[in-house]
Amino acid sequence: MSPVKMNVLPQAILQSPGEHPRFVKQPVCPPLDFARIHLIKDKDGIDDYLAKNIKGLSKQEAAANRNSYTKNICIDMLRRGYHKSFSELFTLIQKWNALREAAGPGSAIWHEKSLEEQPDKLDQLYHFLTRAEAAQRAGLYEEVYDNQLNLACSFEEPEDKWLSDYFYEQCFNTAQLVKIDGGKRKAQAHVNMGLINEGHGHVMEAAEHYEAFYQLTEGSSWTDETGHTYNLLACEHLWRIYTLLADKMLENKEHQEAIKTLIKALKMAKEAGNVKMEGEAAYCLSLAYHFSGEQQTALSILNTSLAIFTALRDSAGLGRAYAAAAKILASQGKSAEALKYLGEFMKDAENAHLSQSVVDANVLLGKVHNERGNYIEAFEYFSQASEAARTLNSVPLVDETKAYCGIAKAHQLMVAFNSHVAAEDPVSLKYLLAWKENRSDMCADPLTVELDKETSASKPL
Question: Which residues cross the membrane (predicted)?
Answer without folding.
Answer: none
